[in-house]
Amino acid sequence: MDRQLTIWLLIFAVGATTYAARMSFIAFFARRAMPPWLAEALKHVPVAMITAIIVPSIAFVSPGALQLDAGNAKLVAALVAGGVAWWGQSTAAGGMIVRQTAVLTIAAGMIVLWLLKYLVG
Hints:
Layout: H1 3-28, H2 36-42, H3 45-59, E1 60-62, E2 65-66, H4 73-91, H5 95-119
Antiparallel strand pairs: 1-2
Helix pairs in contact: 4-5
């Protein structure tokens, strides 16, 4: 079998598996009530997924090289962005303020990252 066909078959298989997993969940709870403990647990899935994606890219400067000190510019920028988000959370009352806080959080993190990359290298 040639390489291109293998890749397309793999893409199809992964897509079909993902579709089946999602559809089975929807079909199972279509006529049943979801248990409250499951509904509560599912609220935490997005945060867990984003954490699993973002934290390794911040904490590891290269594959296998964990760096949790002030020399890691991405870590410092992430902590600043987290502080801005935490500070903005207390002032977030409406939709517009939430969007402004999100933009401010991203901007603060990127400015700190760019400054550290420029100044430190």
